[in-house]
Amino acid sequence: MTGKSPAPAAKQPIRAATAAFIGTTIEWYDFYIYATAAALVFGKVFFPTGDAFLSTMAAFGTFAVGFFARPLGGFVFGHLGDRVGRKKALMATLVIMGVATVGIGLLPSYEQAGVLAPVLLIVLRLAQGLAVGGEWGGAVLMAGEHASAKRRTFAASFAQLGSPAGLILSLLAFRLVTSMDEADFLAWGWRIPFLISAVLLLVGYFIRIGVSESPDFAQVLADKETTDIPAKEVFRTSWRTLLLCMGVCTVAIGGIYFTNTFMLSYATQTLGLDRRMILDCLFVVAIIQFFIQPLAAWFAETIGTARVLILASAASVAAPYPMFILVSKGTSASIIAGIAIVLVFMAAIYSAMAGFISSAFATRIRYTGISLSYQFCGALAGGLTPLIGTWLTHIYPNQWLPLAIFYSVLSTITLGCVIGLALHKRRQEPVFSAVTAP
Fold first, then answer.
1. How many domains is the chain built from?
2. Which residue, 212, 206, 205, is CA-closest to 94?
3. How confident is the model over 168-182, as pLDDT tens digits?
4. Exposed end of the chain (fewer CB within 10 Å): N or C?
5. What is the Cα–Cα distance from 342 to 248, expressed in whole angstroms?
């Protein structure tokens, strides 16, 4: 991993932010194409039960498996990132994700290999979960820790920007292959987006290799302040912070899989809408998210990150009700408008929360702290959201109110924890400032 010399120090903040954006774009592309395939095709290819509900639940179950592996990825790569360096951990996550994604594209179907096919799918999904579990925290820190103290929220948001960018690429890839004949799409067309990941892996690898180690962590190494077992210190000294940070992430993580995974299944199976139209609508919404996130990060630096998070999460509590009213109309314009109402506030939270929670942990345990916060939340809010949404739809057929209430609950958790973490950080400031100052 020493093929290129790092860029000059003056260019490192820009290079680090760019590498964080491109790297997370690739990682999230890989993760999102699985989510899209789980909603559209995996039930038929790997779990052909003859019952659409059971097949979809089984496909979303494998989707959830990746989330349950993410805390382990956060633990493993957080440990490496806080012990040997952010960069080395990030290079490893990128390679693991790329190899696992290409492997999924090469899997035999249930018809070809029987039960071995879904077993292999689950194994590779676990590898995806491990990789993305270590990716997010490292990308946020590489971008944020290279920036000045005043620009860290904005810089860290570049890692967050990879999520809508990856979603846009994944939707583009599936929009192209879903225009194929149904039989060809099920037989081999769905594999193309997964195989493309091999090219993206090479691009991301050579961009990341030119970024130097985080200055903050380099100082920790120079001062010999690394912790033997970072996770142990997080659980011993910062467990309240860990729980509050998990809560802050709830609607940003759960919400994106509510709108882009569950809603894809809901719109096609419950409302009977054309899948290509829904993918087109989600594509437009993802573009909106892409432009809102950097604006929200800039706004957070201007008026205060906690203020933006409180306002956005409060609005998010009310947002799902007009969303479902509009989505139920079934036109492209109404679907885009409805999902955009929810997404504006969700994107603002997602963009601003990276800098907000990373500043809550000391540098020597920061990679582990934010990774475990985000990934434990991902396992619960992200992995279970499509399953809970599908279950609610089955229990309350043709009723969207229970789904809207579920989304409001996710938003309320975030609102309460943003307020709680802001107060907690204020109480910890006299002690904490000495170990977090850049």
1. 1
2. 205
3. 888 888 888 877 888
4. N
5. 17
